[in-house]
Fold these 2 entries.
Entry 1:
Amino acid sequence: MPDSNTVREITAILKSLYPNAQTELEYRTPFQLLVATILSAQCTDQRVNMITRRLFQDHPSVEDIAQLSLGELEEYIRSAGLWQTKARSIKKTCQILIERHNGEVPKTREELMRLPGVGRKTANVVLANAFNLPAFAVDTHVHRVANRLGLASSKRPEQTEQQLMEAFPEHLWKDAHHWLIRHGRRVCHARKPQCERCALAHLCPSAPKPRSDQESRCKQEDNQDPYR
Ligand code: SF4
């Protein structure tokens, strides 16, 4: 793990790169954020916003969506990946919210994760963004960038979440989540990270080493090669 000075430097750079980091999903209520986040699995935020603008304009509340038939809800969300599964999850979630939570979105991870279509990441997104509660949501971008930067060292998102909560002070968890997502989308791409234009390259253990370093390491290795 990087030392606290390095984390502070990474924090300052990310903050300056992404000063207005917040979710790109559009919502007005915790319920709408919950639905948008369920829809966002394997789907871009832009696509989700296109869907929810229409859905929430016609049916803004949990009661409104609960009254839709499954077929009617499917029509709204048909352009999202996995739309049939998501429609069933959203419909069932609405019923549970009305029957067990007075139509409100619960504020604990345990209760959220009992809702269909809601995993740990979705629960954390809702807790942090809708309720401003301390939670560090780890999606594919956060997981990848954190591990490349050495802020975490894990193959499991849940462990990455734990390590990020230790690396960053609690008041930065929400922002750091958004910074790492933005950085993953814009610079540290999954297949071709753009290290040559990355402002964090000098702090990143995954960045390619300068050529001269590589050459001198090769020379050292040559000298040590017993089969030479
Ligand atoms: S230097 Fe490369 S691997 Fe490291 S964070 Fe930047 S883009 Fe990602």
Entry 2:
Amino acid sequence: MQLREHAAHARGAPSGNRLERSYRQPAGRNQRLVLEELAAAEKPLKAYDLLARLRERGVNSPMTVYRALGHLIAAGRVKKIASANAFLATRHPASAVMICRICGFAVESPIAPGLFEQIFGDGASVDSASIEAFGSCGCDRAAGVPRAAE
Ligand SMILES: [Zn+2]
């Protein structure tokens, strides 16, 4: 699922994935600002990039950004992309993320229900997972070609 679709999905479309959680709304202004900025970016942002984008909206402290990120991660609204040391707005506790090495665009897709039972056996219960992949979203192809399947 592409992030643009993902944003529509996050606005309330129900999902059949049993790994989906019910998500709390961001509790405070700073969390809301951080989540809005990440959702608009459509790519992972480092904490200091977030801070630079949020200064004009009154967020001036790295600790404010890190605190908001911590709450949003705990609430399942933001995922840390460990290999990029950056953060991505998400709705899927179990997802695969492909990050374009050329333009930085991120495509997130929920991991198929039942995948972990297939891998680890019927008794397995995985409640959080992340797969990070890097490659090209297609932006390096001829002009006019969409970045990814839409
Ligand atoms: Zn790209």
